[in-house]
Amino acid sequence: MYAIMETLISLLLMTHLSVAVHILKLLNEYSLTTTYGIKTEQLPRFNEYDFIIVGAGPGGSPVANRLSENANWRILLLEAGGPEGILQQIPLLSSLNTKYDWQYTYEPQKNACLGIKDRRCPCPKGKSLGGTSTMNSMLYTRGHKLDFDIWAQQGNYGWSYEEILPYFKKSQRANLREPVDEWYHGRNGYLHVQNAPWSTPLTAAFLNSGKQLGYDVVDYNGRQQIGFSDSQLTMVNGTRCSASKAYLRIRRLNLDIVTEATVSRVLIDDNNHAYGVEFIKNNKTYRINAGKEVILSAGTINTPKLLMLSGIGPKDHLDELGIKVVKNARVGYNLGDHVGFVGLTFLVNQSITLLAKNIRTPESVLQYAINGTGPYSTVVPAALAFIRTKLATDARPDLELVLRTRSFNTDGDGGKSRSISREVYDAIWKPIEGKDAWGIWIGAQLARSKGRVTLRSTNIEDHPIIDANLLDDPNDLEVLVEGVKLAIEISKSKTFQSYGSRLHDIKIPGCETFEFNCDDYWRCAIRRLTTTFNHEMGTAKMGPPTDPTAVVDPELRVHGVGGLRVIDASIMPGIPVGHLTATVYMIAEKGADMIKQSWEK
């Protein structure tokens, strides 16, 4: 990443004035100290606000925006991280394992992640204004109609697809290439959704291969999800459009935003009513009151952590840690994710990938700095396919294939972004370093394995225990095996063969006893090179009062505790198909409306 900055600086010295001015403007807008036009406060200006929101990601940022539309309400938004940085705005670059990442990891897995360092798959989560939307792959997918209809059938009134689609559209400002189902997209929302302005030939090859296999090229956020598609991205003019950039670049006197403020617990009185929060900034502890509600939007990992530290959680677990139980609830359970496999690599005989030497050029940097296009304006997951395998049990696709326009041998970090062990990397990818390669990541969409989040201690600084329990259900493994077979068929298509594509066939360490490319070999390989798509959800499950596993009700109010709601991915009762960020924006828009309806009557 620093090499890119050095290249930009050197270009400033060698290019003509207009280019230099443009780059300076870019650096100024996205400098490490700016808040991108977002007004922040060092500390809250008042001792009491009407609403306190914890977390400035795709849950909290929209809620802060929408509630502050009521000029009679005071809103406080607290974020543990700081402002975004310049490198987060460039789509191709990554801020994983930096100060913008909580750098969580799963507990060592029994059935998965066996080729990952210490068997601990990474669990990156954003720690800045914008939350994880500042560091994810920017993919905007909404899930399948049936996902939400099932939520409603479980007693969650108001959450059917027909009822939530207007909130997807409300959040969105779409500017997409064909094919696009116009009726399903919004044009006036805060969140920009676009296709990447530049792509490698691999994207077209992937889409053509899908057609050769009999699939349609579709708008996966429209009427039909099954098929092959160009990626729809949370992007504007070649830069990342995070939650904070979308929703917080507003100037409202009734909205205070405080960064680098780590909330340590929710304050709850003897009547089980939340009346404020405690937070830490610069090693000092502060308490702020909420006259109406506290809203937790800290995410699937940190929201259950805060609930439990505040006395809302499983009684036996809280008793072990000496935490006074306010409400015995199934907080931290139901942890779900899209489990995947990252071990497929295909070599090609032409320079059509995002190999470092192909893109780290003055021309590529200038192309981005001047026009906002070129390699730096794209993302590695360039196209998607949603497929129903023979194992599917309803109309939803149970498999996602993600085209990756480079592989670990070309990403420049030796697989560190996914914590691949040195032994595995050296055996598989080191022999082909410097060669053009691409990949397909496979994701099980309706994964049945469930994990749990628990507290490690009562210290807010300690990371929680995240046991994802990956591949515990054998069906998840079998769906991935079917995905591997389909991915290999794609690579054999006429289009990919025109680039000399071939499957990299060095056996993964630990799987040498199996015949390469048989089902048992792939089962072994998947258990070693497991990933999740980091779509963690479900740890504060939504459900009616009759559901003993539910933490919040269909209006996102915590069961048994007044003045407290949860608005983030942790409320999802089941995991939707695709990537979850778009759904969190929808939840936030709907949640904000429900709060308004409660208090504006």
Automatic annotation (TrEMBL):
The gene is LOC105274122. FAD binds at T132, V263. Residues 126-149, 299-313 form the Glucose-methanol-choline oxidoreductase N-terminal domain. PANTHER family: GLUCOSE-METHANOL-CHOLINE GMC OXIDOREDUCTASE, GLUCOSE-METHANOL-CHOLINE OXIDOREDUCTASE N-TERMINAL DOMAIN-CONTAINING PROTEIN. The active site is at H535 (proton donor), H579 (proton acceptor). SUPFAM superfamilies: FAD-linked reductases, C-terminal domain, FAD/NAD(P)-binding domain. Its cofactor is FAD. Pfam families: GMC_oxred_C, GMC_oxred_N. This is Glucose dehydrogenase [FAD, quinone]. Belongs to the GMC oxidoreductase family. GO terms for molecular function: flavin adenine dinucleotide binding; oxidoreductase activity, acting on CH-OH group of donors. Residues 1-20 form the signal peptide. Keywords: FAD, Flavoprotein, Signal. The keyword DNA-binding does not apply.
